[in-house]
Amino acid sequence: MKEICKEATKDVEEIYMAGTPEVLGSGRVTLHAPQLDEIEKQTQYLHEKKLKMGIALNPSCMGGQHLTSQGYNMFKWYFGKLNEIGVDSVTVAEPYLIEMLTKEFPDMKVVVSTISHVDSAERAKYFEELGAEAITLDTNINRSFEILENIREVVDCELRLLVNEACLYKCPFRYFHFNLFSHMTGLGNKPNIFSDYYYEKCMSFRVRYPELVIKSPWIRPEDLGVYEDLGIDYFKMSGRANTIKWIVDCMKAYSARSYDGNLMDLLDCPSELRDMFYIPNKDLDGVIKQWMNCERFCNRCGFCKATAERVIRVYEFTDMKRRTLSLREVKTKCAIS
To answer: DSSP states of 162-173 as a string?
Structure first.
């Protein structure tokens, strides 16, 4: 935390971390599970630095515990402790918890997680009615500008976008992967899985079809202004399971609104992909103009596939040296082999 605060730019307002897994899990993998005493120390430190503390408690599944008397009392106790500590915001995915927080702890900002899949004006309005003060929108609509504009028209609450998540667009595994993480990080017996099926399939799809990396709904640092013009209030960085250096580097790139390097270095995607693909970020200047008018019928368009063939380079290691090949060169080599 100290390293991040030391490097924080004037654009950084809030730093978030996961909560205590013995109480409530998370929708994502976490490298560190803080107890209340650590959260209190970190919160005090952030406040000294004029920064806010956010706690992410956003499992997509709690096995119904929140609807039991024991579960309700435990979650209410924990949220009460966070409130006493001075935590500024709590991010949750479960609608029931949104109402609980709104009614019981009005001093803490209630933020809807992207895991709640708010992808329309109607769904955004429902969550605002439940008491949400901020909504992190579904990443699948990051490039659906008419939908973003429509959501802004119907709700008054704060809107946030996750800028560097590199999940597959319309991923068929997304809901199930969140559920898996929720059970692996939450209460009860942890599933002793033999492999992460969803992760492996996600990887294999992108290796076979590199254009899926381009279709992934990330937002480049250079394009943040377009979203601000639509009324987006805050941008959130994903990647709490990465190294501190990586987090700091991404923070600086998005604060500078410019990055001259491999786009993969900014994306919260499996690290293996960073070692496989090189995408010169500056070669993507202007692509947002196409996406602003895109109808999202990929089978009729082909823009992302053509862009992938134009910009993506693939790392090749030979004789202890690294070089990059275009997708066309890779296909040629595979055909010859």
So the answer is: E-SB-PPTT-TT
